[in-house]
TrEMBL record, chain A:
Keywords: ATP-binding, Lyase, Nucleotide-binding. It comes from Sulfitobacter sp. TCYB15. It holds the Pfam family ABC_tran. One of its GO terms (molecular function) is ATP binding. Belongs to the ABC transporter superfamily. Residues 2-226 form the ABC transporter domain. This is Phosphonate C-P lyase system protein PhnL. The lineage of its organism: Bacteria, Pseudomonadati, Pseudomonadota, Alphaproteobacteria, Rhodobacterales.
Automatic annotation (TrEMBL), chain B:
Pfam families: PhnJ (PF06007). It is an enzyme of class 4 (lyase). This is Alpha-D-ribose 1-methylphosphonate 5-phosphate C-P lyase. GO terms for molecular function: 4 iron, 4 sulfur cluster binding; alpha-D-ribose 1-methylphosphonate 5-phosphate C-P-lyase activity; metal ion binding. It catalyses: alpha-D-ribose 1-methylphosphonate 5-phosphate + AH2 + S-adenosyl-L-methionine = alpha-D-ribose 1,2-cyclic phosphate 5-phosphate + methane + 5'-deoxyadenosine + L-methionine + A + H(+). The gene is phnJ. It comes from Sulfitobacter pontiacus. GO terms for biological process: organic phosphonate catabolic process. Belongs to the PhnJ family. The lineage of its organism: Bacteria, Pseudomonadati, Pseudomonadota, Alphaproteobacteria, Rhodobacterales. Its EC number is 4.7.1.1. Catalyzes the breakage of the C-P bond in alpha-D-ribose 1-methylphosphonate 5-phosphate (PRPn) forming alpha-D-ribose.
Amino acid sequence: MITVENVSKSFVLHNQGAAEISVMAGASLSVAQGECIALVGASGAGKSTLMRMIYGNYLTQSGRIMVGDLDVVTAAPRQVIQLRRTTLGYVSQFLRVVPRVSTLDVVAEPLMATGSDRASAEAQAKTLLQRLNIPERLWQLSPTTFSGGEQQRVNIARGFAYPYPALLLDEPTASLDPVNRATVLKMIAEAKARGAAIIGIFHDHAARDEICDRQFDVTRFTPGLAA
Amino acid sequence: MSDYNFAYLDEQTKRMIRRAILKGLAIPGYQVPFASREMPMPYGWGTGGVQVSAAVLTPEDRFKVIDQGADDTTNAVSIRRFFEKTAGVAVTEATTEASVIQTRHRIPETPLREDQILVYQVPIPEPLRFLEPSEVETRKMHSLEEYGLMHVKLYEDISQHGAIATAYAYPVKVEGRYVMDPSPIPKFDNPKLEMAGIQLFGAGREQRIYAVPPYTQVVSLDFDDYPFEPTKADHACDLCGATDSYLDELIMDDAGGRMFMCSDTDYCGARRAAGHLGAQGAPLAEDAA
Amino acid sequence: MTPLLQVEGIAKMYGARIGCTDVSFDLYPGEVMGIVGESGSGKSTLLNCLAGHVQPDAGAVRFDTRAEGLRDTVTMSEPERRMLSRTDWAFVHQHARDGLRMNVSAGGNVGERLMAVNARHYGDIRDKAIDWLGRVEISADRIDDRPTAFSGGMQQRLQIARNLVTGPRLVFMDEPTGGLDVSVQARLLDLLRGLVREMGLSAIIVTHDLAVVRLLADRLMVMKDGHVIESGLTDQVLDDPQHAYTQLLVSSVLQV
């Protein structure tokens, strides 16, 4: 479902003396449907970078990244947008929302964007929020004032609202207490069971071992860090 | 006779005005620019109408001038005397006997014939002016038939007054193409704009001439659910008893006494001469001057 | 799929000075394109060339008209272009005063475009105006008030209602939140976002405010000195800027 072939990335910092920093070289990886892969490696080795490259948020200098039938590296912007809407989900570390939108609307949005009517989208959103223990009195409020843990759970609810065939999860269990952590792991397992291809970053080793089938060490492809 | 050229204007000027008139007749409702001359009366006193009349009069014509329907106001009298002096044409107060009628702000009640010409005095020829001050823009709107703004004006009337409040100078669409200001005639007169006579409109200060040929379609603008109504005061003329003519209201005293009479003096007089009398009417001979 | 707008090689010079040059892109239905740059970058010149307010010196702007497919609007006759700008296109000005009739009521402002395409039933026009005022969060009891009685944010929302009432397919926006208080901006952006999604609009938004494009635009073009120096997905250009100027622009934004 997700295939990364020989990708390289470097940053050129023009305003700092045109310093060129090569952060990845020749990385290759593939994830089948129903698999969950953990990206591992020291902080700064390139785990989030690789995830962002797959999502199209970062440009890839060379190589191919196939998600389904689309090569993200050479795709037109509207193709990537379409991919993000219906195929590839991404739960980042931080919740980024538009001000004034209620929690319920934030979670329902991926469903509405893929054609669900408001009523059923809201119903599903409510189920998810309940599952993640977000109290009902918060549903009409904007999540911008919530605690870190609450924001993270809203973030996850949004990421799992629509059954994406491929998912990218960056620290999904960070800031969560044991109960919610277990719920999230269960949700990831359910996604696996329905055939989603999942790439995750977990600093929580126990969670990683519980849910992931394989590990991928990005350090092998980080110039200057290769062991 | 006098030392003036016939009807005051020189022949070249008359030719220029006639060209404008022909163009106006060829494009009904379209405002034709013309080189308005300095006339021996100030702007705002009918110079446009006077120039058009001067250009169309011939020595055989019989000329009538009305001002708000009356032949005997100062302005009507002045203009009539002007043409008596400079053109030597016969004059009359009887609508049926006139071949050229110059008018300010009314159409005669008596329907005109194919051999008659009606010349209107026009202050502001541009119907869109009050909503769109730019001349460049209004010319574009006319040429591109962009008249949405005209309906905005009517919309505003209804939203503010519950009905289209425009009582005079009510805009019309001519031959399905140009929107025209019929000059400040009461909306009651709008239906008469479809007539057998030739209608010429002159605006001296604004330097525009426009025209409506005989039997041209002239439709007053409205909304489907607020149709045009040519309303007048719900009275009969107190002098002649007419129920179908536009009325002037005269305050008689300070106790609320008032009288309604036909604005068209010739129409009223003719009816009284034929024996019709209204509530306060007396036989014609007893009228004060 | 046919692009809604196909821009090819647009250039506008002011004597020897470059207004904008060599701009080409395709815009598809439902896409929002942001154009950012600082003062003098050429973004407003470009927008005016695209919207037909200014005649470009070179290039084509092909729009997918309903009746005749792709037509170059640069070479179109003026009546056709004016008709397009009253029906399929909309233009939201930076200053609401430039996009509204200040001496006409709110209802009249919203109804004008309808009346311009021959709506002739007062009741229907008024109902539609009330509906649209509601959608831009202006209370219905203000329908007969003049825009002079409105706050800046309300005037801007009225301008949006006036433009969208005929269901255009392409909206041009020039600094739509410029000059408004921050809280008012947030509300307006949220409204625009919702309307764009709901109506499936395509939009081209010129702004110097990166937060606005991040919120509203799918794609981004960065302009400097009349040239497009970088373009791509909005989040990609902002998170992984390639060009020196883009990097400078992004790093200059204060994080609150």
